[in-house]
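<goal> How does this chain fold?
<body> The protein record starts here
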Amino acid sequence: MGGYSALVAIVVVMRAPELRGWEWLLTAHGLILLLIWLLNRPGLGPTGRTIREVFPLLLLLGLYAELDVLNAGNPRIYDDVVQRWEAALFGGQPSRDWWRAAPSPFWSFVLHGAYLAYYAILAFPPVWLAVSGNTRGLRQFLLMVMTSFVVCYVFFIFMPVAGPYYVFPRPEGAFVDNLMARLVYGALEEGSSYGAAFPSSHVAATVAALFASWRADRTLGGMLVIPTALLIVSVVYCQMHYAIDALSGLAIGALVALTVGRFEPRA
């Protein structure tokens, strides 16, 4: 978190002429660095130790939302590059063509619901691990998931990709005439950041959460296997991400989890 905040502060300064409110972003990341320093001082009480464990997740929405502002200073959007990769690998554009070739209202409902399950996949395991007293598992879960997010966010800053949700005509008709689809589109209208498609942080963080949960508690990990698999499919079938976004997110989540898993969190 410290390294990422320092990197963003440098980017803000470099892009300042094109950014509105850059002073607020710079101040915010200065405060994050101060918070990290304060939370790593010795002698923290119970409240301070609790905040130290969970503060990255508490900052996540703000870090995601600021990508919109940061990418306003980056005139280059790389969808054309990713679409060429997609065509070379799959012979077409699966995110645009799949739902049109097989427009199932049933699978639309299921997979839009799986897309929404992303929030539960990230929120439920920390509660489970905290209640069960598995502090080590909780710390490793947070480290794996937040590292996956940070890696993806670095891509979003330097190689922003809008994604098929923005560049192709959106699904319509009976395919999206269900509660889950309406909830997904409502959430995207309220809180989607432009340029945050490649790699899929949804997939990367979910895969990291699965690895971390499985490592900490096999019962918990087993509960996440099917939701994770459905989410990976959903981001492409529901035209939220290019297929290569999902594959790269899967690779990042797995590699981060395997790498972080080699290190034991502090006691």
Remarks:
- The two ends are 19 Å apart (CA to CA).
- The mean pLDDT is 90.
- The CA atoms of residues 151 and 252 lie 8 Å apart.
